[in-house]
Sequence to fold (447 residues):
Amino acid sequence: MTFPITDASPIRHAAPLPGRVDVTVIGGGIIGVMTAYFLRQKGLSVLLLEKGRIAGEQSSRNWGWVRQQGRDLSELPIMIESLAIWKDLTVRLGDGLGFRQTGVLYLAKTDREMTAFEAWFAQVQGFGLDTRMLTGAGAAAMLPGAVRAWKGGIWTASDARAEPWTATPLLADAAAASGVLIRESCAVRSLDIAAGRIAGVVTEAGRVACETVVVAAGAWSRLLLQRHGIRLPQLSVRGTVAETGPMPEIFPGCLADDDIGLRRRADGGYTIASGGNEDELFIGPDAFRSFGAYLPILQQDLRLNRFRLAAPKGFPDGWGTPRRWADDGPSPFEVTRILNPPPNLKTLSKVQNAISAAFPSLGRPKLRTVWAGMIDTLPDVLPVVDHAPIPGLILATGMSGHGFGIGPGIGRVVADMVTGGRIGHDLQRFRFARFSDGSKIEPAMGL
Fold:
């Protein structure tokens, strides 16, 4: 498989469209794939529909971190379960996932950052994590080639990494082998609603009847849902990432401070990105409509995002992107099969400079591939995992850049939501109604 995945990439899954299934899953990222996988394990007939290619968007464009460290307390129990699932999947599927427990290290440049680390560490006591606080000397001991002096850090040795380019496609292959019907390049134009509840989906290739639909459509979820009167304050944030060729090992796992985010890869290179506030919020009509919902987090940290005017079309919140369309004609999901925004090279240049300053023996890293992805985010930087107001519809979206590592755990949870099984976790903070029931929006307490 080559990267980036585009709509010119070969179609690997082209199952015939069935007349009826028990469940249709919309979205071929890791959330949709793992939901379909676990639904099939429960004996249900499942159709997974992807408008572009499996993992074509954020599930292959993320950093590849599988971390418990820094999670909001509401996500942490599911993430702990997810880590166990990653281990089991690796036993079943082999090294193709790229899963390695090489740890996650966060480094603090300021006393304020250390205070935030200590506050999170205090709150997660009792979860059974192997997380440790590090002094400046302790952090330096883990990075013998570094010349930067950090105040300290926080370290979780059991955290892991995986290879996004290959992991989700391999998981999709496993789902298909178990009997999940997967069809790429097949957009869902609308939900089929009869007598006030889900009756199926209308795709560009025809209608499929089903009793349950799971929307795991990432950055496109809002556009699909608002066509049916479901208002989700979901926006898109551009994150820029790059990979280097093989380099001497400076750290075997995942590392971040305010300037640098990096992950060792199996091929001996590093995946790198900005560790700070370099993500860019694309402003379109929906962003203006959602301004009130986002105000609390903007007030908390005005540096959180840099603002960019959304493109006229081709983005979910583009100024020219239709919000209404007919079932018998092309939808916006067919116009843009895969979101492939241009990377911000200035951001990457800053990262290269920061790495060479911290690790001068490496020199300035040479970039082999650069890319960007659109992260689907919600006002509190937590997902929606809940039943929707339309009976038979379940939402699993808005992962806010946290979806890759937690994906297997969320997939298991959603499968039990569909079947009425034991969820085993408190999903109160992930409820859909929190944006409309008068609840105070509390930004995630994460790092």
Q: What stands out?
A: DSSP finds twelve helices and 21 strands in the chain. The two ends are 33 Å apart (CA to CA). The chain has a mean pLDDT of 93.
